[in-house]
């Protein structure tokens, strides 16, 4: 099979400890390919910007880890606040200590709920979004790249960006800026790390009703004065394929990008949006 080369590889996924999330689906897809999975998430609420409503809790993270094992992978769960350099180093160290290597890093942790009118946008919200979505990817990628270079057999980094990496969205100055920045990080890392055989790509999903996506549906439907279902139907109607995204759509794109099928692909920001975004 064309994805056979993935078996036995060690895959670290940040922000993968929340049910219905993109990270959870990515973890199951790689587990089914026989990979070693490192599930990671915040685990504990941290202040009002990272309340229990929005984050993957330790128990949830451990359950997802067990579900990876049921699907055929080996798995561990490692709490990691991607804003903290020592946590990111520990995450990659734990992956290597348990499984002997790191082959794939997927920077999936993201904050998409701190949305405010631009003239009222709080500096603390800006910092929280940029710290997770952009600095977190920098810190984890740096630790992964150090290990991949030491290992001497290349590797793969995938950044979960967004349609907001290509287009602007109202009330989402920080989110949009962070995701555009993540594509910049992707391109810089791709040109610098290519000589070590490390490929770096981004995936840009459109709307998916995850826990985060559900919050956004409520937020934007209220802002636009629409009921929840009418708002959601509007997204479907605008989409050439007539639906919103599924978490599995993103997981499949990650399998492809991590496999030898994408051996000559690096520095890309791949839309997975049903044709809604095409540049
Ligand atoms: N759902 C969508 O419509 C959509 C669209 C485009 C891009 N995305 C991106 O996909 C990724 C996953 O989002 P999702 O929709 O699955 O939502 P989600 O809420 O299920 O996943 C986000 C995860 O990030 C974690 N996280 C937040 N702060 C963290 C921190 N400081 N350290 C570690 N983890 C932290 C959360 O605990 C959560 O588990 C995000 O980067 C998001 O921006 C989502």
Set out the fold topology.
Blueprint: E1 10-13, H1 22-32, E2 36-41, H2 58-70, E3 74-79, H3 85-99, E4 104-107, H4 123-151, E5 155-160, H5 173-193, E6 198-205, H6 211-223, H7 228-238, H8 247-258, E7 269-272
Parallel strand pairs: 1-2, 1-4, 2-3, 4-5, 5-6, 6-7
Would you mind describing this structure in some detail?
It is a single chain. By secondary structure, the chain is an alpha/beta fold. The chain contains eight helices and seven strands. The chain has a seven-stranded parallel β-sheet with strand order 3-2-1-4-5-6-7, sandwiched between helices. The chain starts with 9 loop residues before the first strand and ends in a 7-residue tail after the last strand. The model has no long low-confidence stretch (mean pLDDT 97). Bound molecules: nicotinamide-adenine-dinucleotide (NAD). Nicotinamide-adenine-dinucleotide binds next to helix 1 and helix 6.
Q: Which descriptors would you attach to this protein?
A:
279 residues, seven-stranded parallel beta sheet, Rossmann fold, 45% helix, 14% strand, alpha/beta, 2 domains
The tally of domains stands at: 2
How would a crystallographer describe the biggest sheet? Answer: 7 strands, parallel
Q: What is the CA-CA span between the terminal residues?
A: 31 Å
List cofactors, ions and other ligands.
nicotinamide-adenine-dinucleotide
Strand order of the largest sheet: 3-2-1-4-5-6-7
């Amino acid at each position: 099979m064309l994805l056979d080369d993935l078996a036995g590889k060690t895959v670290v996924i940040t922000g993968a400890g929340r049910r219905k999330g993109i990270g959870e689906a990515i973890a199951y897809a790689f587990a089914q390919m026989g990979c070693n999975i490192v599930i990671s998430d915040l685990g504990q609420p941290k202040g009002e910007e990272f309340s229990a409503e929005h984050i993957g809790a330790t128990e949830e993270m451990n359950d997802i880890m067990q579900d990876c094992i049921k699907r055929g992978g080996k798995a561990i769960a490692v709490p990691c606040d991607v804003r903290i350099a020592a946590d990111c180093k520990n995450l990659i160290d734990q992956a290597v200590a348990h499984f002997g290597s790191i082959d794939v890093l997927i920077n999936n942790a993201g904050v998409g709920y701190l949305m405010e009118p631009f003239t009222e946008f709080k500096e603390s919200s800006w910092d929280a979004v940029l710290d997770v979505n952009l600095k977190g990817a920098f810190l984890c990628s740096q630790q992964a790249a150090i290990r991949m270079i030491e290992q001497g057999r290349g590797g793969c980094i995938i950044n979960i960006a967004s349609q907001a990496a290509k287009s602007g969205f109202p009330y989402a100055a920080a989110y949009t800026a962070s995701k555009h920045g993540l594509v910049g990080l992707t391109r810089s890392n791709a040109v610098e790390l290519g000589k070590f055989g490390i490929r770096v790509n981004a995936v840009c999903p459109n709307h998916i009703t995850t826990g985060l996506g559900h919050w956004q549906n409520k937020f934007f439907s209220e802002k636009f004065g629409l009921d929840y279902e009418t708002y959601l139907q509007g997204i479907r109607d605008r989409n050439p394929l007539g639906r919103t995204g599924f978490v599995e759509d993103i997981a499949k794109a990650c399998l492809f990008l991590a496999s030898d099928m994408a051996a000559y692909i690096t520095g890309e920001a791949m839309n997975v949006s049903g044709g809604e975004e095409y540049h």
